[in-house]
Task: structure prediction
Amino acid sequence: MYKFIERGSITSASGYKAAGIFCGVKRAKKDLALIFSELPCNAAGTFTLNKVQAAPILISKNIIKSNTKVRAIIVNSGNANACTGENGYLDALKIQENVAKFLSIQLNEVLVSSTGVIGQRLPVEKILNGIEEIVTNLSNDGGELAAEAIMTTDQFKKTFAVKVELSQGEVTIGGICKGSGMIMPNMATMLSFIATDAYLEKDQLQKILINSVNKTFNKISVDGDTSTNDMVILLSNGASNVIIKPQSADEEKFSLALTALCEEMAKAIVIDGEGATKLISVVVTNAKSIDDADLIAKSIANSPLVKTAINGSDANWGRIISAAGKSGADFNPSKAQIFFDSLPILCSNYTVVLNEEKAREILSNKEITITLDLMEGKYSTKWWTCDFSQEYIKINANYRT
Amino acid sequence: MYKFIERGSITSASGYKAAGIFCGVKRAKKDLALIFSELPCNAAGTFTLNKVQAAPILISKNIIKSNTKVRAIIVNSGNANACTGENGYLDALKIQENVAKFLSIQLNEVLVSSTGVIGQRLPVEKILNGIEEIVTNLSNDGGELAAEAIMTTDQFKKTFAVKVELSQGEVTIGGICKGSGMIMPNMATMLSFIATDAYLEKDQLQKILINSVNKTFNKISVDGDTSTNDMVILLSNGASNVIIKPQSADEEKFSLALTALCEEMAKAIVIDGEGATKLISVVVTNAKSIDDADLIAKSIANSPLVKTAINGSDANWGRIISAAGKSGADFNPSKAQIFFDSLPILCSNYTVVLNEEKAREILSNKEITITLDLMEGKYSTKWWTCDFSQEYIKINANYRT
Result:
């Protein structure tokens, strides 16, 4: 139904251009990205739930809330423009104005986004100087450069795209995103920009995006912290001439493809989590309710004790059941069963069937699935997290210096 | 009003004996502790809120709930007897029976407690063999040996005692406790045993204990995990012949002394947190409600990003305000002010007054107070946490091996 495109990115979708340059916010690496649609786009977005919201979040959220079309997204890395007050807000406005001017579009057709250190004024002149250059650099295959320019402590750039065959023809969804610390459900310093050449109504787009984000970006955790700057944006420009009708079979197909794309992006963020060496899928099955399943999976995914044990390939299943127990969810621990991949570790009534050697072998892999079967209800969920390494501490003890 | 006793411990209170021996649960270190009161005690207790509760928790909780007097507490370290099902429960019962037999007291006068690895059967024969020996070792100054025998990854033993002058005479409160991972509000693998020679009614004792625990042990965090085995027990045997009447001025004095004792014990647990190098007091002032103050302080105290920044003496105040923002508490971030000790870092309207050099000097100290003044209401709180170091990961990646 959908197919991933090799080396696909946000510019894999028709009618989108992008660019990424160095303008001087960081010391040497690319730090400014621009995404541009030739046609006006319907736009959907989800934003951080942190009470402290960066200036660009306030601006972009207002645009998504309103009914205006969107043409461009300008993103800088290296500085979050968060906790910068009135001045920070004016800085973000200046950037928005300049992008509009050089692209000859309206002010409120430009979304703005920032990521990096909190609480320092943006070197706004450097960014303003970069805008003229980046506009001339826009190209139909600039997605990878843009992906590079939004990175902070990310180790690799993250770009993905899928093609979906629909009744009226083929459409493409492409995206770029970045992590990699402060990753926790309900957004983190996580930026994700997604574009499709299909046409969807604005409300429809928002509904589909929220559904996909809830199943993917909102189910990952690196360190339990939530940033001031997170956003996921989905643009739809209709360049493919394929219109997706609300509640149609096509919409269902598109939604599945979008969720698959978001899942790959979310997993890439976890794999690239600060100091991460392993991708851990946390599956909770047969819970009494979906809320119970999510509470438990989230608690396991956030437990430093579980994450350090897996870092050391230590089959310390007691920490898994204990993390479930402190989640606040309703379940009977003595019924629970635990598996590492398909290897049973614990059966009901606390019957330990752990084979230490086989368990250590599985836990030494780069990708591990921990399954907690509650043996009670019929609700299941899946979260993603990474292990917790000494490298994480190293990175974060001296982030600003 | 109260005075700490140098090198005081649980046996500083009159009428209590204690002992600590090696019986073979651990490889070489002391692993069995016994506390005994010559007179029957009223007993109060608070227990882990984890849904997964170890066998000894189930047994001891029932005794505290009932109206029976308590005479003894038997504690082993090295194995938590948690997630061990029916067999684990029977193991704990056997231990309780043996202690009662050798002390010639009733079964339900014996509280049981365990700490250590989860999910492995207790080497119960070794403990049973140790009981006869430990009973003969009971002594009036055995508190320190008992404190040593309850340690797991603790680096130092924790014993404290205070004397309080009351209208009828002087009473003593003494305690021993242990940390040091899985420390989070509402109990952790945190055991604390406190004894007083004052006489208090059972209900009165429980009320006073809960009040002190809420202000101290429930406001510390090492890693946000909550254990299956936590308990705080307070015994009152009346050996001083001082009776504390409910709602009297004496009760107030006793309560303050108990809280001071618990605060020292709680801080000792944090200082000795796994891998900790610094004690961080998190003070939140002028919140709209006490719940808001606690939500914010807890979120800051639990944030790996704040804790790693302080490990690196990095004045990354943005992470503090961001941790406050994600807490769910109601406040206006732009009003907030931040201090490190008495040094202002951030004034209202995001006015940064940070002197990097002075801030780094303060953050390099062993004890640091972070104050977040919300400038809104009149409620304040104080939490304690430690920094997050590479050593924490080292300890926990290979705990069982």
Remarks:
- The domain at 2-271 of chain B is CATH 3.60.70.12 (L-amino peptidase D-ALA esterase/amidase).
- Chain B is about 35% helix and 30% strand.
